[in-house]
Amino acid sequence: MNEVQINERLPLTRAIPLGVQHLFAMTGSTILVPFLTGLSPATALFCSGIGTIVFLLLTRSKVPAYLGSSFAFIASLTAFVKDQHNLASAMTGVLSVGIAYLLIYFILRLFGTKWINKIIPPVVAGSVVAIIGLSLTPVAISMAGANWIVAIFTLAVAILVSVYAKGFPKVIPVLIAIVAGYILAGFMGLVDTAKIIASFKTPFVLPFSSFGTINFNVTAILTFAPLALITLIEDLGHMMILGNITHTDIIQDPGFDRVVLGNGLATGIASLFGGVPLTTYAENIGVLAITKVYSSFNLWIAAISAIILSTFNPLQALIMSIPTPVMGGVVILLFGMIGAAGLRTLIEAKVDFSQNKNLIIAAVIFAVGIGLTNHGIMFATLAGIFLNLVLKDEAKESLDTAKEAAK
């Protein structure tokens, strides 16, 4: 199948499975964050669906991205929700993240976004994009390590379908791989069906029982708000990847300011429902890269499906019963594709690594981004930007010298 562009729509018979594939790709991580921090997985799913719809509206459906739970806030949420049992203060912190994003939006509106390309040239962008994927691979390997037989089988199915399948199956390799991996895991006794059966006793749940649980807490604000910088840089990296994959300039159209606004409002809304701060998801970008189907309409389907899923208990139980190694096998491919997209940026931009400046920038970004386990992407990006600004441009210097000699 040829590439399907952002503004194109496939028939529902194809669009719905593609949307469900996006749903499956993000659900594991989106549920994991509230599970670890003591919040409601159903609420997180509901907020991710609502947040993605808000994001798509504000970006005029020009950015085929899905918003899911951010891992950057796990420690902060755990401290307030799980340790202190203080949900109201935690939601104050989440709201402050949304407000921080709105402030950044106004700054971008005031000064524009063209400066982004100047301070983040291809050598910085490509290297950061690469480490976004590569830094996530330990998580994928850890998940796969729960059962390597299942993980490798799932990965193999995804690869074989993606490369050798014909027609429509070729664009849903992730979904097919998850189903195949699930079946194998079931035969190996790794699927807990008891929770699925029990879920039919209470088939419907309200995912927003904590609506409006907020109280002003300065400590929570100071704990959460600065972390908006991490998700901001993460969003920027993801937009670079998306632009590379879809052959568009998302930073300029619809504009990175709209991306920031969408994420900020989505996170603010999540705080009202007792949800988790939201961010664009590498998993879903990986799906786009593999399938070459970039239609935003499929992300709308995924968002609506997530909202339905958050209220229907058996569907939640079915998704949550997917064994960890099944998802591990899939995300090995998805995260690897993100890393490969970064290398593709460097190659297509013809970055000259014979220039010491470019070599040093890439080296530092890779070392810091992969070496640091806490906020490595943020520090690597900042290091790359700093080095790009302070190191002399050898290519420009050589050109200036040549011009002087010609005179």
Question: Can you characterise this structure?
Answer:
The protein has 407 residues and is mostly helical. The protein is built from 19 helices and 2 strands. The termini are far apart. Helix 6 runs antiparallel to helix 18 and helix 11 crosses helix 12. The chain is globular.
Short description:
The protein is mainly alpha-helical. It contains 19 helices and 2 strands. The relative contact order is 0.22.
Could you give the topology of this structure?
Blueprint lengths: L11 H26 L3 H18 L8 E3 L4 H10 L3 H25 L2 H6 L2 H23 L3 H17 L8 H15 L6 H6 L18 H7 L3 H19 L4 H23 L4 E3 L1 H10 L4 H16 L1 H8 L3 H25 L7 H16 L4 H15 L3 H13 L1
Helix pairs in contact: 1-2, 1-3, 1-14, 2-12, 2-14, 4-10, 4-12, 6-11, 6-16, 6-17, 6-18, 7-8, 7-16, 11-12, 11-13, 13-16, 17-18
Give the overall pLDDT as a whole number: 88
Helix content: over 70%
The oligomeric state is: single chain
Note the gap between the termini.
Answer: 55 Å
Rg value: 22 Å
Strand order of the largest sheet: 1-2
Low-pLDDT regions: none
By helix and strand content, what is the structural category? mainly alpha
Number of helices: 19
Question: What string, H for helix and E for strand, traces the elements in order?
Answer: HHEHHHHHHHHHHEHHHHHHH
The counted number of beta strands is 2
Q: Which term fits the overall shape?
A: globular
Largest sheet: 2 strands, antiparallel
What is the beta-strand fraction? under 5%
Q: Which labels suit this protein?
A:
407 residues; 73% helix; single chain; mainly alpha; 2 strands
